[in-house]
Amino acid sequence: MKDQDITLVTAETLRNEILRHLKLSIGKDPSHASLYDWRMSLSLALRDRVVEPWFASTRKTYEGKHKRVYYLSMEFLIGRLIEDVTINLDVEEIAVQAMADLGQDYYKVVVDEPDAALGNGGLGRLAACFMDSLATLAIPAYGYGIRYEHGLFEQHFEGGQQTESAEGWLAQRHAWEFERPEVTYNIHFGGYVSEENGKSNWNPAETVLASAYDTPIVGWKGQWANTLRLWAAKPVKLFDLESFNRGDYIGANAPERLARTISRVLYPDDTTQDGKELRLKQEYFFTSASIKDLLRRFLAEGNKIEDLHEHVAIQLNDTHPAIAGPELVRLLIDKHDFNIDDAIEMARKCLGYTNHTLLPEALERWPEDLFARILPRHHRIIQMIQDRHLSATGSDIRIIEHGNVKMGELAFIIAHSVNGVSALHSELVKETVFADLHKAYPSRILNQTNGITPRRWLYSCNPALRNLITDTIGSGWAADLERLQNLNAHLDDTGFLQAYAAAKTTNKVRLAKWLKDRNDVTLDTSAMFDVQIKRIHEYKRQHLNILETIALWNEIRDNPTANWTPRVKIFGGKAAPGYVLAKSIIRLINDVAATINNDPVTKHLLQVVYPENYNVSMAEVLIPASDLSEQISTAGKEASGTGNMKLSLNGSPTIGTLDGANVEIRDHVGHENFFLFGLTAAEAQEKRTEHGYSRRAIEASPRLSRVLGQIGAGVFSNGDHHRYSDILHNLYEHDYFLVSCDFDEYFAKQREVDAVYLDVNRWTRMAAANTAGMGWFSADRTIRSYADQIWDAKSVT
Ligand code: Z16
């Protein structure tokens, strides 16, 4: 690929473009412009520079009749875009200069942008990383999702407890999108199915409009741009004038209210599904609009419907869009005269399904009566898909069972490919949730280990390390991350290690300043920054971490003059609003922080900080500053993890279990550069069959018994003995996640971490070896693998 002229821009031209937008798009004079006005003007000027490569990409795709990938996802957790676009267009210095010439601080403008937080966690962020890599690899692709009015809730702590408030990213104009009022589809719900001359007719009861908003996603060096198309729900009829004329002013607004509810808010549960009607409507709403849209594009190009699979690959990001299968079958039958068998076969050739979890509470199932009421025609089509599956395979696995429509089984059966997201997870998919279907379709399950975009998660968020890497191995690594291996030749070079440590210190100082400004806490930047950032969940075991923190505190107090390694324990993450035990864990962390941070005996050695409202932009500050990455989930429960990859890439060795992608990270960075502890997935499963295992483990551990005793005695709750009885009860009586069983080994491994950290050279070498070994985890590698093995899609050169 050769660089296009379009990215050639000077500070002067960019400055003039910003001024033009300030005047003509925002309607402001420079002397009266607010920070918001400057941000809008800069964003619009940058967006202009994406439009040419965007058009060029569309044109090439069309002219070359290239296959397109359609990535269907309920969530796209993209975060901020100014820095992302600037870096991808390679104009950061120019942008800084242009803003300075206008008397503005570019970085102040960057952090004024609200995060686009249209996702809960890993699954949504993965979709965003994939969009970045698809554009970088010049694979023609569309992301399809929902334009939620409110993204993930904002988290606050009140007396240490999580409260939530609505997020409002669209309260301000979203500078990056193009509204497409002409691109709309009618989406139907409810009603009944009638039969006429052997044809089924869906007579829906309700209709809403899906209206498109496009955001261009530009790849590395501006060589290619794809589209993220998000659907907003609007009323078919804006306003009920009849009601209004009757004097019914509330009733007049009813159609509007009903429709807009559908794209109003992102469901805040990551791994539980609550079977609510609105959620099902959201899923069908965006899936149906997306399928109709891709069919329209395909036919508009003069293609024959029989060739659909040659031009279209549809990937289902979890089961949330699994209704795409029956919807495509329905449209092929009703609009294109396919018979049911050919329609199913065609749908299968187009569809792939990615599984992201084994947790039973996360597997989507809909009460059959609800499902049949909202989607009566699809209900019947699913029965037909099931009948054909049963007779073709002799399997007895049903999609509809015990009055439930099971979306995992539907997705598995209607797709030609099913993949897990790490090697271990994919094996467990074969052995557990889909064991029987795997027997019926033995070549269907593949592994595609997750990846992360190195542009956002190293190049952009960690300029100190970025510059050192480029100085050491040359440029070009950001789009060819395996080149980081060239750092291995420098791991015994003292000058390199000193520079590496200096880059880490720069990032720790940046974080310390950020926390000072935000929360007025002071960090000792020579202490080890020990970081656990992710959704709060029992399986991720933040409670294991905080229990170990208490045990360490005890031991420092017992022996305050020993050679302790100073640590700052940093937590970040949100709990689902309805997840009571997770919220209890949050409160415990905050309570422990309040006690420990005020202890004059230990405060210079141990500190706990938990900044509220963890999100993508907070991750961009925390990750480069981390020394130690906590990846301590119960083995067999974390499908992959991607934060584990970001931290290791940024020179933060892992303390972790053999779970998800940790297994592969350890293999890539070297076993000697990874702090392993804990039961394996198989041992964990075995342990659960031993009666009374948790109480026995607690009684066998004086250290853990002491900690649990303190919590029960109210040491961290002003003498309240009951505040944490839920957690304590859970640990003593069930402990499904085996906190008690892994505790001692975790504590011991942490002391090993302490010892290595005191040896600065050894630690820095380990950190640098992590960076050097992580190239394989680029999402570019992941996307190439999907393109080869699942989509049969090619880069356009
Ligand atoms: C999610 O983020 C994930 C799984 C899931 O069922 C629902 C949501 Cl919202 C996560 C997995 O927990 C994580 O291990 C994985 O890395 C990530 O999906 C991307 O695959």
From TrEMBL:
Spell out which residues are annotated as carrying N6-(pyridoxal phosphate)lysine. 646
EC assignment: 2.4.1.1
Please give the cofactor(s) recorded in the UniProt entry for this protein. Answer: pyridoxal 5'-phosphate
Query: Signal peptide location in the record?
Result: none
InterPro entries the record matches: Glycg_phsphrylas, Glyco_trans_35, Pyridoxal_P_attach_site
Q: Name one GO molecular function term.
A: glycogen phosphorylase activity
Pfam families per the UniProt record, alphabetical: Phosphorylase
What's its catalytic activity? [(1->4)-alpha-D-glucosyl](n) + phosphate = [(1->4)-alpha-D-glucosyl](n-1) + alpha-D-glucose 1-phosphate
Q: Which UniProt keywords apply?
A: Allosteric enzyme, Carbohydrate metabolism, Glycosyltransferase, Pyridoxal phosphate, Transferase
| GO cellular component terms attached to this protein's record | cytoplasm
Task: Enumerate the Gene Ontology biological process terms.
Answer: glycogen catabolic process
Family to which the UniProt record says this protein belongs: Belongs to the glycogen phosphorylase family.
Function per UniProt = Allosteric enzyme that catalyzes the rate-limiting step in glycogen catabolism, the phosphorolytic cleavage of glycogen to produce glucose-1-phosphate, and plays a central role in maintaining cellular and organismal glucose homeostasis.
The protein here is known as Alpha-1,4 glucan phosphorylase
Q: Which organism is it from?
A: Octadecabacter arcticus 238
Gene that produces this protein: glgP
